[in-house]
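Narrative of accomplishments. A recurring question from our advisory board has been how the design workflow behaves on a single, concrete structure rather than in aggregate. To address it, we present the structure tokens for one chain from the evaluation set, followed by the sequence designed for it. No filtering or post-editing was applied between the two.
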């Protein structure tokens, strides 16, 4: 299976059946993100236990790519530490924006996101949830964050 097939299959699957979609009881951090270019809006719910992301869910409305990317992200970061999740953000960001970046092993299904590079107008759709996550994890007081925007 080449990367374009993987991209299409993974995006379709995760848009049709988003993982970890809905409210999160006992969340410790809730951050809103929006991509005005496309109209994507999401709220990321995190439950942090010490340094670890114990649980994560998301809600919102967006295009297929923004929904699928958020679904993939929640699967990838659940159970990870703050530092691991931020490292993953850096790798995915490179994958989305750097034409020379090859998906490395260990990214799993996230590698499919490199297919978004074929559609430059949609990069912000795919990166919205990741920017929202990074902002939430880097802030000492996440609940004080104004909404994250890709603009
Ligand atoms: Zn979008």
């Amino acid at each position: 299976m080449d990367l374009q097939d993987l991209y299409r299959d993974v995006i379709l699957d995760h848009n049709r059946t988003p993982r970890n979609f809905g409210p999160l009881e006992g969340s410790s951090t809730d951050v809103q993100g929006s991509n005005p270019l496309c109209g994507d809006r999401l709220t990321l719910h995190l439950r942090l236990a010490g340094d670890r992301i114990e649980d994560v869910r998301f809600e919102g409305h967006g295009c297929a790519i923004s929904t699928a990317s958020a679904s993939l992200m929640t699967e990838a970061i659940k159970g990870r530490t703050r530092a691991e999740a931020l490292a993953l953000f850096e790798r995915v960001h490179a994958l989305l924006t750097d034409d020379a970046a090859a998906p490395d092993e260990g990214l799993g299904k996230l590698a499919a996101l490199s297919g978004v590079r074929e559609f430059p107008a949609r990069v912000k759709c795919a990166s919205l949830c990741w920017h929202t996550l990074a902002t939430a994890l880097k802030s000492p007081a996440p609940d004080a964050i104004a909404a994250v925007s890709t603009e």
